[in-house]
């Protein structure tokens, strides 16, 4: 069946002075209308790069897509005409970034920044675009939107600025919203409010959402499915409840054990030892093996294939079944 958005066997390299860094190594995921997929991983796992490839904004030094497809409603963004691609990325898919302060222009009012897209892409008049900007600010629950539309970014708190960014991303009524660490720069209470807002908007506007995060703690209530990334691969993909209940990959298990729990105050959090791999010189076999407490000889020599565990669940671990069955 055709998905709304599908990343299919994507490979991306970055050519640096020190050599070729293989940052995405065969990533596939999909998104259906109205659904939320969380893409989880540490910094450098490739979760943002995949999204940047979808949006056509790969960072410098130039990332190069060497293989794969990015399908929107069955049409490949990488091979469609420039015009169609620009339309799709501008109107169907939109993205919210982590750092609202540096994404907003300090010298223009938030109203003029929200309405700019509407004027450019929808040809709205200044007055109509401004009215729509107020509606959008209302929709993201910025109090007194009508008055605040004339304020400048520095007059808003961090959380309110992120709401302005979300309002901007909704201007074209996108079908897919990609949120890249949307709450990382904010304090904990505000984080929860922004996550609630995103969940509510997704529901009310019937968008699909890709939520990129390093924090497994924030996705439980929001996501339908989770794709866990490590070293440019998806190492586990599962329904959110199945994954929380019984992880099928040692990395996911480690992430779950490092979430602070309210009912376990005072107990020490487990953390995953070691650092993410250097993708200029990735470890042999399973890229996670230097940090994995279950590693065996085969893990050092053989890259684990993505095992299909049924029910839409996959894991790239030689011992996924043993882990799932509680045998290790
Ligand atoms: Fe650990 Fe081996 Fe599984 Fe990799 S394949 S996650 S090293 S047990
Ligand atoms: Mg990132």
From TrEMBL:
Main location (coarse class): membrane
GO molecular function: ATP binding; DNA binding
Segment forming the signal sequence: none
Keyword line: ATP-binding, Cell membrane, DNA-binding, Membrane, Nucleotide-binding, Transport
Occurrences of domain ABC transporter (ranges): 5-256
InterPro entries reported in the protein's UniProt record: AAA+_ATPase (IPR003593), ABC_Ni/Peptide_Import (IPR050388), ABC_transporter-like_ATP-bd (IPR003439), ABC_transporter-like_CS (IPR017871), Oligopep_ABC_C (IPR013563), P-loop_NTPase (IPR027417)
PROSITE patterns: ABC_TRANSPORTER_1, ABC_TRANSPORTER_2
CDD domains, per the entry: ABC_NikE_OppD_transporters
Subcellular location: Cell membrane
Record's keyword annotation contains Nuclease: no
Coiled coil ranges: none
Protein's membrane topology: Peripheral membrane protein
Presence of the UniProt keyword DNA repair in the record: no
Pfam family, one: ABC_tran
Alphabetized PANTHER family for the sequence: DIPEPTIDE TRANSPORT ATP-BINDING PROTEIN DPPD (PTHR43297:SF2), OLIGOPEPTIDE TRANSPORT ATP-BINDING PROTEIN APPD (PTHR43297)
NCBIfam families assigned: oligo_HPY (TIGR01727)
Similarity-based family: Belongs to the ABC transporter superfamily.
Name recorded for this polypeptide: ABC transporter ATP-binding protein
Species annotation: Hamadaea flava
